[in-house]
Design goal:
The chain is an alpha/beta fold and about 200 residues long. It is built from six helices and seven strands. The longest helix has 14 residues.
């Protein structure tokens, strides 16, 4: 079976290319609004599965990969900032604080209709940041469509004191260690697929 990535994120596509296997991709176009009383982990797992299953008709004989990330700060789910002022506000609140990121990945077998999901938690401790540093960072990178108002794969890494996770790619949005495990459970061995 071939791989399909249900994502419009170029960062997830870049991560998946690390496996050196061919894949196709398409945006799943789903409603990502959290449900009332839904936990961050439940939201991430549900959306990863929904993204993968949204492409089942387009890719009828594929292993479809969906992924979603939810951030939580002070007991509240965070949304993508969407604009500069919201991003400033988020990063000001994060200065010197810890934020939890829950990154879910799903592999949906469109042939068998079987779906498997896994979750990785990442804890990010932000360093103390001045308003000037926050403003400068946001003007340079403009991460307004990124959970947490930063891009860890870019200059966002300069905002942290520490990252703790069992999968270093999870903070970027696609936990490759968990993904490899889920693909192997579907009989798709990455190393055997490389020419």
């Amino acid at each position: 079976m071939q791989l399909a990535l249900a994502s419009s994120s170029r960062y997830r596509r870049e991560l998946l290319t690390r496996f050196r296997v061919p894949f196709v991709w398409r945006s799943p176009s789903i409603d990502e609004t959290p449900r009332p009383a839904e936990t961050p982990t439940d939201t991430a797992l549900r959306l990863a599965d929904a993204k993968a299953q949204a492409l089942q008709e387009t890719f009828a004989d594929h292993l479809i990969i969906g992924s979603d990330q939810v951030a939580c700060f002070a007991g509240h789910q965070l949304s993508k900032p969407g604009n500069h002022q919201n991003a400033v506000s988020q990063l000001q609140r994060f200065s010197g604080q810890t934020v939890q990121f829950f990154t879910a990945v799903c592999v949906y077998n469109s042939r068998s209709k079987a779906s498997q999901t896994a979750l990785t938690q990442t804890t990010v401790r932000f360093r103390q940041m001045s308003d000037n540093e926050i403003e400068r960072y946001l003007r340079i990178e403009q991460p307004y469509n990124c959970t947490g108002s930063f891009m860890a794969e870019g200059l966002g890494i300069t905002l942290f004191d520490q990252i703790s996770s069992d999968d270093p790619t999870a903070i970027i949005g696609l936990p490759l260690i968990k993904l490899r495990q889920l693909l192997a459970e579907q009989g798709y061995n990455i190393l055997n697929k490389i020419d």
